[in-house]
Design brief:
It is built from three helices and ten strands, in the order αβαββββββββαβ. The protein is globular and about 45 Å long. It has two domains: 66 residues, Ribosomal Protein S8, Chain: A, domain 1; 55 residues, Dna Ligase, domain 1, CATH 3.30.1490.
């Protein structure tokens, strides 16, 4: 039984990059779809397609490489089901001095640390990616 579907989603992407796959298939949910679209916008994933296999929705995520080097090298899940991590708008940390991104779940939806600072909102820290 899976207790943290977002962690599973992130690890499937990371494992796909480590295995040099072209595409990863993950079960569909609205938050995974929003997270995948945010990763596309930030340049960590290629294209996101929603497909249906025998009536079950899935996300097909295209992985991106630059000179055979994965665009995403590390992902750290911050908030877990047993310990949620929240941050105020003026305390949002930077990842690797601004080289990575922090994904936050805010009242205005999922956004990166840069977007949250610009919009002056805090929220739950989902993960760090670089």
């Amino acid at each position: 039984m899976m207790t943290d579907p977002i962690a599973d989603f992130l690890i499937r992407i990371k494992n796909g990059y480590m295995a040099h796959k072209k595409q990863v298939i993950v079960p569909y949910s609205r938050i995974k779809d929003a997270l995948a679209k945010l990763l596309v916008k930030e340049g960590y994933l290629g294209e996101v397609k929603i497909r249906s296999q025998k009536g079950i929705k899935e996300l097909a995520l295209d992985l991106m490489y630059e000179n055979k080097i994965p665009k995403l090298t590390e992902v750290v899940r911050m908030s877990k089901s047993g310990r949620k991590m929240y941050v105020k708008k003026d305390k949002i940390p930077k990842v690797l001095g601004g080289l990575g991104i922090l994904i936050l779940s805010t009242p205005q939806g999922l956004m990166t640390d840069k977007q949250a600072r610009k919009k002056q909102v805090g929220g739950e820290i989902i993960c760090k990616i670089w």
